[in-house]
Specification:
This protein is of the alpha/beta class and 253 residues long. Helix content is 42%, strand content 15%. Strands 3-2-1-4-6-5-7 form a seven-stranded mixed beta sheet, with helices on both faces. Helix 1 (15-29) links the parallel strand 1 and strand 2.
Amino acid sequence: MIYICIPVHNEGGAIGLLLWKIRKVMAELVRDYEILVHDDASTDDTPKTLRRYRKVMPIEVVRVSRRVGYARATEKLLHTVVARASYPKRDVAITLQGDFTDDPSHMTTLVKTIEGGADIVAGCVPRGRVHQPTATRPQPRPVWWARALAPLALGPLYRRSPVSDPLCGFRAYRVIVLKKVMREGVGPLLSTEGWTANVELLGLLAPHSRRIEEVSLVPRYDHQVRPTRVRVFSVLRQLLRVRRRPWFARALG
């Protein structure tokens, strides 16, 4: 089973198109799948769109009335996957954004790489892409600056990371790896937010993974219908915060 995990907040302009593209990709891939959506207190027409697509796709929606943020929403979705996966050594969890900047067509490569023996497959934006337009629209300036400055904020941890782009959250995980980490942990796994939560999650899972691979991808900012929520100084502050943690340095070391 493939569990596709999507945290969303006010993505009414994109979530319908994203789900439709996922349906097309999964029909071609021919795998059993379920879409798990965490509706993080959306105030636009996101809930209405999700209700409509639930009639034609295997979607389960968890909606909260108070916003918890990307990290908490992602963690809840992954806990849900671990709780319901019948075959954790074979089942796969995929995480992607709800704004359609993560192109679902890459899921085929993610899944097949897991089936080829990887425990984690990370989507990675090549470093050169930081300075180039992506698809038909250039990266938003906050995204450009955050990606350009992240290696400086993480310092040696960035260079020792098992993948070239630890910030990207478009990934596939073998469920057994998630299960091992959740069995050990007490309380929330993630204490940071946004891109830094992706770095933190990689640090938690890497020691339990025998094989980590990466897949090059190009974010589709031409699909994004709302302004980016990336805030450069917030990203840098949180990266500096996680960099100081001894356990994290050991995990990525």
